[in-house]
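Predict structure. Chain length: 389.
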Amino acid sequence: MGVKDLWSILSSVGDKKPLWELRNETVAIDLSVWICENQQINRPNNNMYLRNLFFRTVYMLLLGIKPIFVLEGKAPDLKHKTIQNRKLTHGKSNIKSNYFEQGKRSRLNSLQKQCQELLHYMGLTCVCSEGEAEALCAALNNHNASNCMILMNFNISSDRGTVEKYTISKIEEKLFLGRNKLIALSLLCGCDYNEKGIEGVGKETALKYLSTVDESDVLEKLSKWRENTSEIETLLNPAFPFYDIQKEFLCQDYDISEINFCWQKPNIKKFVEFVERKLAWNTNYALEKFLPLLSRWHIIHDETEKVLDLEYIVKKRNLRNKNKKSADLKKNIINETSELNNLRFNTIKSTISHSPLEPDEESITVSDFECSASDLLELSFVVESIITR
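Prediction complete.
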């Protein structure tokens, strides 16, 4: 929905978190964000969006994070002009005008389908929004179907993956901006549905004004600007206060009852075929990167079904060290058994020597009191009882 200057305003309340803190949490991800950021990388045969999608998703799943990927649907009518301007900016001036009027996203849809196919082979399903993916992510977050919304500045280049996390509670507490004020900010500064906003109004002016009104009254006060002749600038735009944009932002008509995280068994054969075709990975490299994911799935689901057939052993394991350790352990047990036998003999001999029966000591030998390893536990209790007495 692209609110102008939004991230610079929110930068002070963003928390950089290690990804492991999201363990066991469900995260709704606007897939178009990841696709678009990778499209800015100029490389021949650039399929970075697929490569990064795979490694990011594997990283999250191995950490126990549950991703729900949300795909863009049909663009709202309000966004058609913005889409047109973006395509013209990228040199696509030869496209027919009726193409923009329909709000088509053929390029993005093509890339989304490829990402959806890759995720399917990894065992994950995507959710397609009827309109903006951000709106469905927000609805999932609002109804507690996900614990977080959109992952921004996702980074796993280091040993510890990090993510910037924004919460509405902290935005309200630190910046005094609730949902209605954020909508008002988009009307004043501009957004994807109205790129210019109000002429001459920037973020500083907008924030200064928003600090003077209550959260519950802000949209109503904007609606009354047209009735106030002193607000000259608003009269220059007959569409203000943009009721259609307000309606789009406030729309909550999303059925999320059937949306849940679900991880099916990954398809290793289809995955290898896909990455060979799309990423030019050889089979060995593809298997090396995919098997940890498959192993994780089997551990979680306690699956015993055979997935791979063993053809041959590349290198047999050397068991000499293992056999040596076993022999040393057996030797130690024998030595300990012998020492305990001597201890048992001497202890019992000493006990009998104080007995009024006075037996013939020469008839007592160690062999008479030998015990096996299975008797050691019982013997320890006997010795401890005699010593403590």
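Summary: Confidence is low (pLDDT under 50) at residues 95-101, 355-374, 376-389.
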